[in-house]
Amino acid sequence: MGAVPVFRAGPVLRRPDAIAIASDTVRVPASPVDTLVVNLHNDNKVVIIGRLSRRLSYQLREHVMGKDPPAQRVNDTETAGVIARPPLLFLSALVLGHAADHVLPSPFGVPGTGTVRWIVAGVLILGGIALAAAGIRDFSRAGTPVPTNEPTRALVTSGAHGWSRNPIYIGMFSIYAGAGVADRSPWILILALPLAITIRYGVVAREEAYLERRFGDVYRDYKSRVRRWL
């Protein structure tokens, strides 16, 4: 038994030699003993029972997913070619800043009592996690990978990406700032500036050029409607 996700479909017709979905037909050989069960009231799953081949499952999934506009769903091996994975850049800045606190003089102190500092840090960290998670969920729903070293399969324009083109990076910056406040680390906060410049020109600029090549006018329209940051 196997299961594949599917969006809402019309009535399913069963014939020995074909399976039809609404007005569109996917014709693949099917054994008479195979059974296809589609829950029309809950469009989250299709259950395939018996000896129905993997090729049927794959073609059925591709048939449904293929309904996305061609300009918004593509499949090749080109990537954005960013300078480095963003999580590694943020982690490196955190480690470098923490180390600098122990070997370099402190240029300024991070103000705030223990309670205030932890409240501010907690808000920044939790808010950043929530925002980054929302952005990752948008990618997951669109069926496109989050890592920048993998090809983008779909242009994400809804959810958190409907009001910012880079909600995941904003969330990472919020987490980074919260860590700096919690650690009372002036160097972590100072390194936020070169980190921001690196993300802006070494990551975001390359991603934008890549998405414009990949999606053309669809991405340019999205870019004209939604801000890069806030």
Describe the structure using short key phrases.
three-stranded antiparallel sheet, 7 helices, 2 domains, 230 residues, mainly alpha, disordered N terminus, Four Helix Bundle (Hemerythrin (Met), subunit A)
How does this model look, in words?
The protein is elongated, with a radius of gyration of 24 Å. The chain folds into two domains: 2-67; 73-225, Four Helix Bundle (Hemerythrin (Met), subunit A) (Up-down Bundle). β2 (12-15) and β3 (18-21) form a beta hairpin. The chain is mostly helical and 230 residues long. The two termini are 46 Å apart. The chain is 50% helix and 10% strand. Mean pLDDT is 77; it is low at 3-72. The chain is built from seven helices and six strands, in the order ββββββααααααα. The strands form two sheets. It has a three-stranded antiparallel β-sheet with strand order 1-6-5, covered by helices on one side. It has a three-stranded antiparallel β-sheet with strand order 2-3-4, with helices on one face. The longest helix has 29 residues, at 114-142.
As residue ranges, the low-confidence spans are 3-72
* Assembly classification: single chain
Strand content is 5-15%
CATH T-level topology of the largest domain: Four Helix Bundle (Hemerythrin (Met), subunit A)
CATH-level-2 architecture of the largest domain: Up-down Bundle
Broad shape: elongated
Q: Tell me the name of the CATH class of the largest domain.
A: Mainly Alpha
Helix content: 40-55%
Span between N and C termini? 46 Å
The computed structural class is: mainly alpha
